[in-house]
Amino acid sequence: MYRSLFPALAVVVATALPAWAQSLAEPEGEVILTVSGALDVTNVGGTAQFDLEMLEALDATTFETSTIWTEGTHSFTGVSLDTLLERLGVEGETLRATAINDYAVDIPVSDAVEGGPILAYRMDGETMSVRDKGPLWVIYPYDASSDYRSEVTYSRSIWQLDRIEVMQ
Which residue ranges does the record assign to the Oxidoreductase molybdopterin-binding domain (predicted)? Predict the structure, then answer.
């Protein structure tokens, strides 16, 4: 009798857990993002590693905006920063975002709001190569609010992003 209850109980517990408490699969493709530091969900050696397919599996956000680095308006698609942080159970206050060339910027966790920045992996429907600011570029919806058109925000818009450290 009790054996028949365990599978049902496991389903109830698994579906009742918030998304951030559920496990994170290991990447099967090339790792393009590694998140470390103060996070609850990890998959490889205390970090959360993502390949492109894993990032695409998270809720995608697309918006159009102009940037100070490109001509005209472009469509950017990626995972919103707030979705990523929620998925990983982030509890820090600052994100140290670092690019392939070791250039780093600090982004306050408070920037991770609905309708805020995304980790873009597509521009105009195409994946971004390293040559074109990829594989990931932190993009804010600059045209959506004058608050996003400031030197501070532009300085946080790191391209060729490949790692984030969550700091307390």
Answer: 70-141
